[in-house]
Design goal:
The chain is of the alpha/beta class. It folds into 3 domains: 155 residues, 3-Layer(aba) Sandwich (Rossmann fold), CATH 3.40.50; 74 residues, no CATH class; 98 residues, no CATH class. It is 42% helix and 9% strand. The chain has a 5-stranded parallel beta sheet. A hairpin with a 2-residue loop joins strand 6 and strand 7. Helix 1 crosses helix 10, helix 6 packs across helix 9 and helix 8 crosses helix 9.
Length: 367
């Protein structure tokens, strides 16, 4: 049996931190290596979170740099290589160069299971590695397997094999229900999502056991394990659970998630960040840029200095324009209206009001 590595990337955000705590506490038998890909443009609060996690785990989190021998900050190094072209939603070279590539170099050719902190209330897989020796697992979701694994497992030509595996593991009632679903071929009328949901409805752990046994017939990294404790896991964790894990563990929620009060025309509102990662992340909403301007002026000015030669962080507006007094008032006014629409939220974290995009920025796209 080959040695399988277990790794978990810490993005500086809430979900990856909570996943690390969750797995550390619930599955201490997993020898997980933690890593963090640096851009040198993170907020200080990101490193405070990493320090708190290191204390909690009693082990260091490996810091990875894509251009570790460069005398410049990581982002500045790659910005020069890309001719001053700022990253954007359509050209996310920052994720590829400073996150995914150093992670893949860190793993090398070892069979590796990468644990990803996408929650049960999210419908995405993120920016994950597709190297054959790296297999992603999503412990917070009802379905812990990646799309690649599900596509491979539920192919119609695997029906007889899956039925045979099923018959070896379960009692008659559950066996009968699962086999009936497995033997129904995929079609336009009965697509993969429907079949997957039907199987998970009968038994999450039962389905996981069948997938695990099937994977032993393949070359996926998990095939080299004799057992895998997460196949018994039926937890589905959502945003509220994430904050609870961080608070109850003592690690705490990063400060940039917490609401900061502002006042506009005698009316009080709140702003903060909704994501981890670089302070100039192009996925930020405009109210988050105003938060940066009013709470970290020096960082905002550094972000503004990158906007030149026709390149800007936002497609429709430059930072020099967003901080004009009338524009700030308009953005804050829009935020107050948004807060009214979400007035039922009692959370101290603004991501209940902002449209959350954790994991869509360059810091947490694939981890």
């Amino acid at each position: 049996m080959k040695k399988v590595r277990h790794v978990l990337g810490i993005s500086g955000g809430k979900d990856s931190a909570a996943l690390a705590i969750y797995l550390h506490d619930k599955y201490p038998q997993l020898d997980i290596d933690y890593y963090f890909c640096e851009t040198d443009k993170e907020l200080d609060e990101t490193y405070k979170l990493i320090e708190n996690l290191e204390v909690y785990f009693g082990k260091k989190i490996t810091k990875l740099k894509a251009a570790k021998d460069s005398p410049e900050d990581q982002f500045d190094h790659f910005l020069k290589l890309y001719g001053g072209f700022l990253p954007s939603a359509n050209a996310r070279w920052c994720t590829r160069a400073m996150k995914l590539e150093p992670f893949e170099n860190y793993v090398g050719s070892d069979p590796t299971i990468s644990y990803v902190g996408i929650r049960g209330d999210e419908d995405r897989e993120g920016y994950i590695s597709h190297k054959e020796n790296i297999q992603s697992i999503f412990p917070f979701r009802k379905n812990i397997w990646s799309g690649e694994i599900i596509n491979n497992t539920l192919r119609n030509n695997n029906i007889e094999l899956l039925k045979d595996i099923c018959s070896q593991f379960f009692s008659n009632d559950k066996n009968s229900s699962l086999i009936k679903i497995f033997e129904t071929p995929l079609s336009f009328q009965y697509d993969q999502n429907r079949k997957l949901n039907d199987l998970l409805t009968v038994s999450i752990s039962g389905f996981n056991k069948i997938v695990f046994e099937y994977l032993k017939t393949t070359e996926f990294p998990i095939s080299f394990l004799e057992d895998f404790p997460l196949i018994e896991n039926e937890d589905v964790l959502v945003r509220e659970d994430i904050f609870k894990i961080l608070e109850q563990s003592g690690v705490g929620v990063p400060e940039y998630y917490k609401k900061v009060e502002f006042e506009l025309n005698g009316e009080k509102g709140f702003y903060s960040r909704s994501r981890s990662g670089c302070y100039f992340c192009f996925f930020q909403q405009k109210i988050e840029w105003i938060w940066l301007y009013e709470n970290h002026r020096e960082l905002f000015e550094k972000a503004m200095s990158y906007e030149k030669d026709g390149y800007s962080w936002m497609q429709d507006e430059k930072l020099v324009d967003i901080i004009k007094p009338d524009r700030i008032k308009q953005i804050k006014s829009d935020q107050l209206k948004r807060a009214v629409r979400n007035s039922n939220s009692k959370s101290p974290f603004l991501i209940d009001v902002l449209q959350e995009a954790e994991g869509e920025g360059c810091a947490a796209c694939f981890i």
